[in-house]
Design goal:
single chain, alpha/beta, Rossmann fold, six-stranded parallel sheet, 10 helices
């Protein structure tokens, strides 16, 4: 763990998909709708997109190998464009981000009670942010829908100018925003990308087991492992009083 014995915790930076919201129940229906919208009624293009994104149309679920599980539009946009036979990648990425901001809200499914958890952490004096490889616009809409907007001071998406995870830019930006050391920041997420982002920045890495990745995949890269965000107030209270 990066935190020294006399260094107070200042902030908690949350991943979004798989951490605050159920990845499959939210993004399965959303991607299904987006694939059909972008295909424009062409069944072959529907299937080509599903194949490229490792997405089951029948189950409306992602394979564990899907680039959407932890990546951003910047990461998988090229293969999506190829599946559609399009060369206007930047235009397509904007279309994908706009569609995702709308479609993800229709099936938004929180994990536990994010509003209660955020309120508890704020009562402990901690300041909160969200860092996601989704777009910032989509993240802000979902944060509002989850009822936590009043608790969240900082939001970073892949397009916010800090880079994407697993690079450390989002954590570094959050620390600057709070005028804190990165060792005073806790990064919470359900993927290796989140934990590697934390480690690269010098923050405390907390893994949650509410996403697609299993404990054995996450534990070697985490300072702490919890089942879900509901376990955080107790965990962080213990860390703060060590």
């Amino acid at each position: 763990m990066n935190r020294g014995p006399s260094t107070p915790l200042v902030g908690v930076l949350f991943d979004k998909d798989g951490t605050l919201i159920d990845f499959d129940l939210t993004w399965g229906p959303a991607i299904h709708a987006m694939i059909h919208a972008l295909a424009g009624g062409d069944a072959a293009r529907v299937q080509a997109q599903a194949d490229a994104l490792h997405f089951s149309l029948e189950r409306r679920r992602f394979l564990i190998t899907s680039p959407l599980v932890a990546g951003s539009t910047a990461d998988y946009g090229g293969r999506w464009a190829e599946a559609l036979g399009r060369s206007d990648l930047e235009t397509l990425k904007r279309e994908i981000d706009l569609l995702s901001a709308v479609e993800s809200l229709k099936a938004l499914t929180p994990i536990g009670e994010p509003a209660a958890v955020f309120a508890a952490l704020r009562a402990m004096g901690l300041r909160l942010g969200v860092a996601t490889n989704d777009s910032e616009q989509s993240a802000r809409r979902q944060i509002e829908a989850l009822g936590v907007v009043d608790h969240v001071e900082f939001v970073a998406g892949y397009d916010s100018g800090h880079g994407g995870k697993p690079d450390p830019g989002m954590v570094l930006a959050f620390a600057r925003f709070l005028n804190a050391e990165t060792s005073q920041i806790v990064m919470v997420g359900d993927s290796r990308h989140d934990l590697e982002c934390a480690r690269a920045a010098g923050a405390i890495a907390v893994a949650v087991l509410s996403g697609p990745a299993e404990r054995g995949t996450l534990e070697p890269h985490a300072d702490f492992v919890v089942e879900h965000i509901g376990d955080l107030p107790k965990l962080l209270a213990g860390v703060m009083h060590r």
